[in-house]
């Protein structure tokens, strides 16, 4: 199951892909991590999907990551007497705390936090931006707006607030319940929706207590403005382009995607590019040329992973969608321009021992033309620092901890193998040589580089680099 690419593929499970056989086919086609969308999955279904993924993992012998995507606050208007109303550009329309069904001039907004936070001049986007309202008056109990664009509003349509920062946190009661459930199910990653500020991560971090890593979804302008702070407090970032494209001008999204990707690469945090990557494959067996280019851009940028949503969850061709994304990524990474682009965007190392060792490992590996860089990692820190360098040489991550290997399945370039704990440095190097041969990364007579932290099993202490020669018996000849 060795991949022929460094970027990872994250596939969403759903009605088209929830059975064990389908999950196995998706993994064989190229899916490295599976996403469970808690907007559509109840706790029983989530637990069943986790069990099926773990069964496939055991049968195929490869660590598979699981990402649970928490819904976040869903802001919606109330209902109308007739189900919907037609509006005119320029007319006034009010959102208030009156629970009566709406009409041509007003509707109930069951979110007092919005009524309290919106200010004059703020935009309110209804139904994914199809209706554009601008606040002209507010008193904390109602928001009077003027219709700027769009002419219709109907029951329970979503509300986006590109200019407004809500005082409430990012976790709803449903989110807290879902978070407890997915942590008990032993998922590897939790994605948090509609993050606005760094403090939105604090409650989830307190609940998680290290049982899963946290991925912040960047989908609001407020999050973009405080991007560096959010990256610092997150374990990974998702560029959630769907809602970004609603709350920001569409033409700004590509630049923001590049900015987020490069900021994450500098920080050494995994970054996932998501939403509508192969959208047409929901109903068609092949993607559009524009979609192929879209995936290619994310790969050229050095994103850690690219994600499929409805394409794999509810589309007619889920396996084909994963296989197509796999082929695109492989071809991009073979392109003669790819190494130069990746090298040009490579960040300067931070002033730490781990970064210095990872930089030295990449430079020595490329200079000496070694077969593979083997990183021994108990917590995942050493593996992530190695991936940050984006080396041309393959990366093999060995860990005695299954959870660590599953988490690292999201990170660029890391082929993760769970192995018994090393007794000492010599044992560790022997394991590196043997597994590199078994996994098809090297043969007898070739060199490899091993990095690790000494003493072993101490987080963040990457401080050892060793060149090893593989003997005829598959073990270190040095």
TrEMBL record:
Pathway: Carbohydrate degradation; glycolysis; pyruvate from D-glyceraldehyde 3-phosphate: step 5/5
Membrane-spanning residues: none
Residue ranges annotated for the Pyruvate kinase C-terminal domain, each copy included: 355-467
Keywords carried by this UniProt record: ATP-binding, Glycolysis, Kinase, Magnesium, Metal-binding, Nucleotide-binding, Pyruvate, Transferase
Molecular function as annotated in GO: ATP binding; kinase activity; magnesium ion binding; potassium ion binding; pyruvate kinase activity
Similarity comment: Belongs to the pyruvate kinase family.
All residue ranges annotated as the Pyruvate kinase barrel domain in the record: 5-322
Enzyme Commission no: 2.7.1.40
Catalytic reaction list: pyruvate + ATP = phosphoenolpyruvate + ADP + H(+)
InterPro entries referenced in this protein's UniProt entry, alphabetically: Pyr_Knase (IPR001697), Pyrv/PenolPyrv_kinase-like_dom (IPR015813), Pyrv_kinase-like_dom_sf (IPR040442), Pyrv_Knase-like_insert_dom_sf (IPR011037), Pyrv_Knase_AS (IPR018209), Pyrv_Knase_brl (IPR015793), Pyrv_Knase_C (IPR015795), Pyrv_Knase_C_sf (IPR036918)
Cofactor: K(+)
Keyword Chloroplast: no
Protein name, as recorded: Pyruvate kinase
């Amino acid at each position: 199951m060795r991949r022929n690419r460094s970027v990872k593929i994250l596939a969403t499970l759903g009605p088209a892909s929830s059975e064990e056989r389908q999950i196995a086919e998706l993994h064989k086609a190229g899916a490295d991590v599976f996403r469970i969308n808690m907007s559509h999955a109840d706790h029983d279904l989530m637990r069943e999907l986790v069990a099926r993924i773990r069964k496939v993992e055991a049968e195929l012998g490869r660590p598979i990551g699981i990402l649970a995507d928490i819904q976040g606050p869903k802001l919606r208007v109330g209902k109308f007497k007739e189900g919907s109303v037609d509006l005119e550009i320029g007319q006034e329309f009010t959102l208030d705390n009156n629970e009566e069904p709406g009409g041509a001039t007003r509707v109930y907004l069951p979110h007092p936090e919005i009524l309290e936070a919106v200010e004059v001049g703020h935009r309110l986007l209804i139904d994914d931006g199809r209706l554009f309202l601008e606040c002209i008056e507010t008193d904390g109990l109602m928001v009077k707006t003027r219709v700027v664009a769009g002419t219709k509003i109907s029951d329970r349509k979503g509300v986006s607030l590109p200019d407004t920062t809500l005082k409430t946190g990012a976790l709803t009661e449903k989110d807290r319940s879902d978070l407890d459930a997915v942590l008990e199910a032993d998922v590897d990653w939790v994605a948090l929706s509609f993050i606005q500020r760094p403090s939105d991560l604090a409650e989830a971090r307190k609940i998680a207590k290290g049982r899963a890593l946290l991925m912040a979804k960047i989908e609001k302008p407020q999050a973009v403005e405080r991007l560096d702070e959010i990256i610092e407090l997150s374990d990974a970032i998702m560029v959630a382009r769907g809602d970004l494209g609603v709350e920001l001008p569409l033409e700004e999204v590509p630049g923001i995607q590049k900015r987020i990707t490069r900021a994450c690469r500098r920080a050494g945090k995994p970054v996932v590019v998501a939403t509508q990557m192969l959208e047409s494959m929901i109903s068609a067996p092949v993607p559009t040329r524009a979609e192929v280019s879209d995936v290619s851009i994310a790969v050229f940028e050095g994103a850690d992973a690219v994600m499929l949503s409805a394409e794999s969850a509810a589309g007619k061709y889920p396996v084909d969608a994963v296989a197509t994304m796999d082929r695109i990524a492989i071809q991009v990474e073979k392109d003669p321009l790819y190494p130069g682009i990746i090298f040009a965007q490579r960040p300067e190392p931070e002033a730490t021992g781990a970064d210095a060792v990872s930089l030295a490992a990449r430079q020595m590996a490329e200079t000496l033309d070694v077969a593979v860089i083997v990183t021994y990692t108990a917590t995942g820190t050493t593996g992530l620092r190695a991936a940050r360098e984006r080396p041309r040489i393959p990366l093999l991550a060995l860990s005695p901890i299954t959870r660590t290997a599953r988490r690292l399945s999201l990170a660029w370039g890391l082929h993760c193998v769970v192995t018994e704990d090393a007794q000492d440095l010599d044992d560790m190097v022997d394991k590196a040589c043997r597994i590199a041969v078994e996994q098809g990364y090297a043969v007898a007579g070739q060199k490899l580089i091993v990095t690790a932290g000494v003493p072993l099993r101490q987080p963040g202490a990457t401080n050892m680099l060793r060149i090893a020669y593989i003997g005829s018996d598959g073990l270190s000849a040095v």
